[in-house]
Please model this.
Amino acid sequence: MKLSFFLTFLAGGLLFFHITAADAETFCVDPGGGGTHTSLQEVLDAAAANSQDDLIQVTEGTYNGNFLYVSNQGFGITIKGGYKPGCGVRGSDPDKTIIDGGGADRALFVDAQGGGNVVVDGFTIKNGAQPANGCGGGLCAVSRATSGAAGNILISNNIVYGSISSMHGGGIYAASITHAGMGAAGDVTIVNNIVSGNRSGRGGGIYTISSSVNAGSGMIKLTNNTACANRASGKGGGIYAYIYSGSFEGEKIEIFNNIARANEASDQGADIYVSNSGYMAKVCYNNYVNIDASHMNNVTFEQNIKNPPGFVSPGSWDDSGTAEDPSDDIWISGDYHLQLGSACIDAGLLEVKGYTLAGGPYHFFIGPQIDFEGDARFDQWHAVSENLSHKYCDLGADEYKPSAMPWLLLFLMDE
Ligand SMILES: [Ca+2]
Ligand SMILES: [Ca+2]
Ligand SMILES: [Ca+2]
Ligand SMILES: [Ca+2]
Model:
């Protein structure tokens, strides 16, 4: 492994979880009456108009509808699922807080029109549909500026499936965008999400963009996501990553530790499509079969694998009796936990430490310290060379956790 490969991380920075809000108002959505509000939409409306950053805590349960946050005030919004009634305690299982779009419109649309950071964490988002000339079928998260800079987007620990967009991002559309004469665009970070059985034009599963016409774009980081069996009628069936930057700032795209398998695209990049406008990108420690390289320059590929992922029970498309017509196909949701023996176990890069050529120590994180359901991604240090050590993690959103049963049996047999 070349030392320079890792040192460029130092310049890029790895600030996955450092999107924070000051002076935030905190809301608790609890349909049972134990919170500040019983209606998710009422909270989104209040947050859009209160001239403050917001933390919206959402209690476990199913929220049917098409939820919308539109604000031109330029403040940040953080929306987190998984809270117990009253929001005093938070669980870690995203399949307990469900936003169901009912096939009528986007399930959740966060439109920070005046900029500001956007965080969405800990939800199951399904049955979204944006058929009329729109992006983001399941979850659409946008920060865009009317004058200065746009904010950062962080989408983490969600399960997104069975959603459709007519344009970009069937499951997730995440964008930080500024136009001519404005400031910089922000970072777009997608971590620990399971995205399956979604459809769109470009980016069937996940579409990410950081774009600034005159100033610099942010980084796009896709880390430890499981993107499977999504479909695009254009490019990028599983993952589409797009950078447009008005100024050169080195590395712009990092795609690490993802599983992108069994996705389909009528155009290029069935599993992954990267358009990096010539800026540096890294595509490392992933499991995919098909990536489009025809529009990529300065891309580093390291340690990617193609082995069967070994899921517990992957989802599937039911063709509704019309194999020749995919438009009426229905997604049958699966279980994307890894099974014992999966080649994805410990095939990802969690942490790196070592010494620079000048002798200075460095230590930084590539992957998140927990998986999508709160399991620790711990490992001991492995010496790669005299000056470099790694910790490893599993690929995709799930860190494999052996059940207690086999150990119990061994214990009993020992007696
Ligand atoms: Ca607000
Ligand atoms: Ca069909
Ligand atoms: Ca592991
Ligand atoms: Ca796990």
The CA atoms of residues 55 and 303 lie 38 Å apart.
